[in-house]
Amino acid sequence: MQLTWYDSNSWLIEMAGKRILLDPWLVGDLIFGNLSWLIKGTKKTNFPIPENIDLILLSQGLEDHAHPETLKILDRNIPVVASPNAEKVVKGLGYTQITSLAHHQTYTFANRLQIKAVPGSPIGPQLVENGYILKDLETGQNLYYEPHGYHSPSIKQDAPIDVLLTPVVGITFLGLIPFLKGQKKALELCQWVQPQYILQSAAGNDTDFEGVLTSILQPEGTIEAFRQLLTQNNLSTQVLQLKPGEPFTPELKQRNVISV
Fold first, then answer.
1. Where are the domains of the chain?
2. Which of 26, 52, 133, 207 is buried most deeply by CB count within 10 Å?
């Protein structure tokens, strides 16, 4: 398994012999609904578009996960696995091979990689987007991704999970309303699935944000504080924030899982 973080929610996941581009925002600015005055993200570094992508995986239909400018420059023939909401985005852009996954549905790609959709972030009162569990069917190594820190208790049945990609440092509106759930939920998640690694996803240092919302967004916790929480709770999980654009290969130990 090799992982490359491109800041924000964007990852290149290499596992099961496949290259999966997850929630890519790689070019242009990030603007929600053409409301640049509300919030606008600009990348400090322009990363090259990864080559030889086997699959695009989209957790949500919002612009910070299904980024229109990025999706427009990728090959429309690349297979896509998406939440039902993200399916609408890629279908409108002309992608030809789309698999939509509802919660708890699974899809096996190339007979080597299993993708399971799990309940993720609520977007409005009636829409809950996707998180994903990816599993290499040959080695048994697995990975979980949820970009806003909303973790369904249903993932306990997939424990243990080797690697988590999710927020460790949260973000709130005025310190009151969570935008990204952080320390408390990340600790609970680690207690559920006993990961070997948890890698900070979502907000990073390689993006500049401007607009009205930036004045009321506040960070919640730090990575070092989260490390201390893990130690206090007798968890050996390694917590890291990767440098954007630099590949990382986790040193995963073989687990002996006993079914009860």
1. 2-240
2. 26
Report the pLDDT value the prediction gives residue 116, as an integer from 0 to 100.
98
**What is the Cα–Cα distance from 146 to 163, expressed in whole angstroms?**
12
Q: Residue 59 to residues 82, 98, 196: CA-CA distances in angstroms?
A: 6, 13, 23
CATH superfamily of 2-240: Ribonuclease Z/Hydroxyacylglutathione hydrolase-like (3.60.15.10)
Backbone phi, psi, residue 95, to 5°: -70, 145
- DSSP type of residue 59: S
The answer, as to whether pTM is greater than 0.70, is: yes
Interval 48-85: pLDDT, tens: 899 999 999 999 998 889 999 999 999 999 999 999 99
For the chain, the C-alpha Rg in angstroms (whole number) is 17
Residue 218 near residue 171 (C-beta atoms within 8 A): yes
Residue 254: both structure tokens together = 């073989």
Helix (H) or strand (E) holding 35: none
Instruction: Give the model's confidence band at 124: pLDDT under 50 very low, under 70 low, under 90 confident, else very high.
Output: confident
